[in-house]
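Lab manual, section 2.4: Encoding a predicted structure.

Procedure: take the sequence of the chain (165 residues), apply the prediction step described in section 2.3, and record the output as structure tokens. A sample record is shown.
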Amino acid sequence: MTRVAVFPGSFDPMTNAHLDVARRASGLFDRLVIGVLNNPKKAPLFSIDERVDLIDRCVADLGSHVSVDAFDGLTVTFARRHGAGFIVRGLRAVSDFEAELQMALTNRKLAPEVDTTFLMTALEFGYVSSSLTKEVARFGGDIGPMVPAPVAIALTERLSTEPRV
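Recorded output:
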């Protein structure tokens, strides 16, 4: 039996915390699909195609059993489309758990055949979030420890074109 998991998120941009979870999940499952959510409620810094491309470059060394795909709509629909029995979610701190638990229980109600697996990010990335990373980058701070190299380059280039207030 093949164990397939999806790791969904908006990944705007992918951080080292996300990459840490993806790396460890890739060792737990036979196939891992990183699902890049096209969320109409958010105004992302990077387009869906740019995010998919950046993530592809960041996970290239994880193996051919790891892929990246864009989606919109429900995560459980995306999971079913890929034949996944698992959803991987990363937790940075206990404060993440309440919202993640509610989401996991909702997904379980919608798709009882799909289980959610929580992975704690590595301690050194517990403070990292996409929004914090963008804020640090916007003000010229060092984002090297927060994001993979391809993301650092893309983020620096993108924000260098923004007008300063």
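Check your result against the sample. The longest strand covers residues 31-37.
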